[in-house]
Amino acid sequence: MSKRKLDIFTKGFFKENPTFVLLLGMCPTLATTTSAINGLSMGLATLFVLVLSNIVISAIAPVVPDKVHIPVYIVVIATFVTILQFAMQAYTPDMYKTLGLFIPLIVVNCIVLGRAEAFASKNGIVDSALDGLGIGFGFTMSLTVLGLVREILGSGSAFGWKFISGDGILVFVMAPGAFIALGYLMVLFNKIAKKN
Amino acid sequence: MAAKSNLTNMVLCLTAVCLVCSALLGGMYVLTAEPIAKANADILKASIGAVLPEGGELSEAKPLEVGGQASEYYVSTSGSEVQAYAIRSTTVGFGGPLTLMVGITPDGKVYNTSVLSHAETPGLGAKCTSDEHFYSQFKGFDPSQKILSVKKDGGDVDAITASTITSRAYSLAVKNAVEAFKTIKGE
Fold first, then answer.
1. Domain ranges (residues) in chain A
2. Is residue B20 part of a domain?
3. Which backbone phi and psi does B121 adopt, to 5 degrees?
4. Biggest distance spanned by C-alpha atoms of chain A
């Protein structure tokens, strides 16, 4: 893998991390990270849509007339989201019940359309796939970390494994805790990223 | 980069993209229709099974009005004898609708209850699914002997600490199911 390709892949983790640096897709980030597993599955669902829509959009971009490119991209993204929704409903009904509304909302997640507009429509198929993978894994990583922090503080467990009995600091399971945890993680992340 | 727009290529492009996408979705729907139906049926069966005595033959869903709302119930029979009824009952809790499945035996006693869906506060009202002391008091509850409302309102139900509204909604849901059961029996 050449250095340029590696850069395209790794920039999603730190330099252009969608959650902590670009601040994109905040709605699913705050709502689904009540536990590490939920964050992880939401991240993976977005990764799936991101990679496939990036590949298809980069392939069809040269023939799409510029005035209708947004509707075309949205149709492509919505198709992959619906495919994912059917698959989750059929094979992982429990996970589907937990993430519920946030699966169809991947269609309007600005990360997906943002990458289609900013990257996939101007670059080749391989680069776009790498970009989708990088940003997708960056998003998954951020959501899992945020979910883990909230789960440890809020329910006293990690990935469903309980290590203190009773309740944790309940506010971290609820919405205000999501904002607080996200804010502190963002500070920490940017401090570390600046040092390197 | 992108092709220059004119009416012909815009219409062609949108039509082609929509055709391909709907074909894909149609295919995916056919592939997953059966597993989805099975998964949904399993969830329903598990929720009904939790509130009924084991070993009964379950009927199809039958329409029923519970607490002024359209709902449904299921009858579990063993041989020709009715074993129990499972009634779906929805009331409004603290955070939104609280939906229960209530199992009632033919003598009018509550067999068991389980929460199908809720939007209660984690750690407070949401304890109605995990606080055994709370939900187990409905097991074998006899509405002809005891009153189905929280102690604060003069009933016999111990409320969850700091979650009176959720406890009220839960008791009301069970009460509505018991009332609805009487209309089934009256038929």
1. 3-147
2. no
3. -65, 130
4. 60
- Which B positions 20-79 lie with beta carbon below 8 A of chain A? 21, 24-25, 28-29, 31-32, 35-36, 39-40, 42-43
Q: Are A62 and B1 a contacting pair, CB within 8 Å?
A: yes
| Tens-digit pLDDT profile for residues B83-93 | 888 888 899 98
pTM for the whole thing?
0.78
Q: Which residues on B lie below 8 Å from A83 (Cβ)?
A: 24-25, 28
Distance from CA of A192 to the nearest CA of B (A): 33
ipTM of this model? 0.76
DSSP string, A66-99: GGGHHHHHHHHHHHHHHHHHHHHHHH-HHHHHHH
Lookup: tokens for B186 = 């009256």
User: Total domain count for chain B?
Assistant: 1
- Give the burial class of B118: count Cβ atoms within 10 A of its Cβ; 0-12 exposed, 13-18 middle, 19 or more buried: buried
DSSP state of B6: -
Asked if A160 contacts A154 with a C-beta cutoff of 8 angstroms, the reply is no
Residue of A114, A125, A129, A121 lying closest to A19 (CA atoms): A114
Q: Helix (H, G, I), strand (E, B), or coil: what is residue A7?
A: helix
d(CA B185, CA B180): 9
- Beta carbons of B25 and A82 less than 8 Å apart: yes
For residues B170 and B127, give the distance between their C-alpha atoms in angstroms, rounded to a whole number: 12
In a domain, B2, yes or no: no
- Any bridge partners for residue B158, and if so which? none
- Residue-wise pLDDT tens for chain A (196 aa)? 578 888 888 888 888 888 888 888 888 888 888 888 889 999 999 999 999 999 999 998 888 888 888 999 999 999 999 999 999 988 888 888 778 778 888 888 888 998 998 888 888 899 999 999 999 999 999 999 999 999 898 888 888 787 877 777 878 888 899 999 999 999 999 898 888 7
Whether residue B3 lies inside any domain: the answer is: no
Is B129 near chain A, with CB under 8 Å?
no
Q: CB pairs below 8 Å between A and B: how many?
A: 83
| pLDDT category of residue B187 using cuts at 50, 70 and 90 | low
